[in-house]
UniProtKB/TrEMBL annotation:
Molecular function GO terms recorded: ribosome binding
Gene name as annotated: rimM
Keyword DNA damage among record annotations: no
Protein name, UniProt field: Ribosome maturation factor RimM
Summary of subunit composition and partner proteins: Binds ribosomal protein uS19.
HAMAP family in alphabetical order: Ribosome_mat_RimM
UniProt domain RimM N-terminal: residue ranges: 10-90
Organism (species): [Propionibacterium] namnetense SK182B-JCVI
UniProt record, GO biological process: ribosomal small subunit biogenesis; rRNA processing
InterPro entries reported for this sequence: PRC_barrel-like_sf, PRC_RimM, RimM, RimM_N, RimM_N_sf, Transl_B-barrel_sf
Length: 179
């Protein structure tokens, strides 16, 4: 039987204790909080230290309140404060929506221009209030490119590349030199 490769993905960070029964506020770091923190879901404290099973979760004033089977009181909840929560997911898993991409699948993709010329590598994804921004490494210099269809018309995770529009200055260190 072939084993599928998995990667560890951060899904949340434990904040303050909430109440006396061991509930905690979780700072959500996943697009799928209802799945990752649904009743019966298991998360792990980063570093493989401890598995936690969700016994209840609810939204209150924009915060996710979660209770774990392994934490029964406020003291246990306080001990978790600051812990990073992770899950293992299939390395090649993608969202159901073809226009959505997970950061981990974008990092490392080759960046090419509309003519197919190599330009750089996606180093990171920043989640800004207006839109997401790709951090692209071009010969050791970081360029920030808004992750919008007009500037990034093609994302092909399967082939390991994205196309960035040939807008002067977008991936050039000096827009004057590009003219």
């Amino acid at each position: 039987m072939e084993q599928t490769a998995t990667v560890e993905v951060v899904v949340g960070r434990v904040g303050r204790a909430h109440g006396l029964r061991g509930d905690v506020v979780v700072e959500v770091r996943t697009d799928e909080p209802d799945e990752r923190f649904g009743i019966g879901a298991t998360v792990r404290v980063e570093g493989g230290k401890r598995d936690l099973t969700v016994v209840r979760s609810r939204w209150a004033k924009g915060s996710l309140i979660v209770a774990f089977d392994e934490v029964s009181d406020r003291h246990g909840a306080e001990d978790l404060r600051g812990s990073i929560l992770v899950v293992d997911v299939e390395a090649n898993e993608d969202p159901d929506d073809p226009d959505e991409f997970w950061d981990r699948r974008l990092r490392g993709l080759a960046v090419v221009d509309e003519s197919g010329n190599a330009r750089g590598i996606v180093k990171n994804v920043l989640h800004m209030p207006a839109q997401d921004v790709l951090v692209i490494d071009v010969d050791g210099t970081e360029h920030l490119v808004p992750f919008v269809h007009q500037l990034v018309p093609t994302v092909d995770v399967a082939s390991g590349r994205i196309v960035v529009s040939s807008v002067p200055g977008l991936l050039d260190s000096n827009a004057e030199e590009a003219r």
